[in-house]
Amino acid sequence: MTDDATPRSAALTLGRATAHLGDENYAVAMNIGGHTVVADEPAALGGRNTGPRPFGLLLGVLGACTLMTLRMYAERKQWPLVALDVSLRYLRPAEGGADRIERVLVIGGLDDAQRAKLADIAERTPVTLAIKGGVSIDTRLTTGETT
Prior knowledge:
Elements: E1 17-21, E2 28-32, E3 35-39, H1 54-77, E4 83-91, E5 100-108, H2 112-122, H3 126-133
Antiparallel strand pairs: 1-2, 2-3, 4-5
């Protein structure tokens, strides 16, 4: 929710999604910007494994944002980037402690200074900052009925 002094229309919408849970246990059909994506749980957890788990989707989004941002930066600098890959893991300690994401970049075609700069930029991509900073979530309840 925005405060009363800030009209909702003043907010910039960076994404939009809807999700629907049907009768397939945990399979959720999502519409994200006109694209259909399915999330599910593995069979061992009662799902049908028809799509990635929610934390897998989170990692995919972080990876996509990371690679897009780094490519944009390298293009703007006219660097000879030839390969850019990222692998990610969401880790939850078995005995307390904070969850963390492990992100490993593989960058080809650049020298050590350029690679280090891209690693630094990766720490400030839009999705990285949203995850690190925490994002306020305002939940409302509606009947779902149309009038």
